[in-house]
Design a protein that fits this description.
Blueprint (H helix, E strand, L loop, with lengths): L1 H10 L3 E6 L5 E12 L2 E6 L4 E6 L3 E6 L7
Antiparallel strand pairs: 1-2, 1-5, 2-3, 3-4
């Protein structure tokens, strides 16, 4: 998981995550990851249009966002 996040930071691509919040609910977010600081991921949340911090252990799934362009 950490390697995927670090690769997204280095290659500057957006990711989608499924995240388990402190209230026990899961959410799906699209992020621009910025930095890993200890056990946390600092990222810009595209849905909230604001910076957010996520506990890496609460990230259940990560996948790169594929941008499809019209031909």
């Amino acid at each position: 998981m950490r390697k995927q996040l670090q690769r997204a930071i280095e290659q500057q691509y957006h990711i989608q995550i499924i995240y388990l919040g402190s209230d026990g609910h899961t959410t799906q977010r699209t992020l621009r990851p910025l930095e890993i600081a200890g056990d946390r991921l600092k990222a810009y949340c595209l849905a909230r249009r604001a910076p957010r911090v996520f506990v890496i252990d609460n990230i259940l799934a990560v996948q790169p966002v594929v941008i499809r362009r019209a031909v």
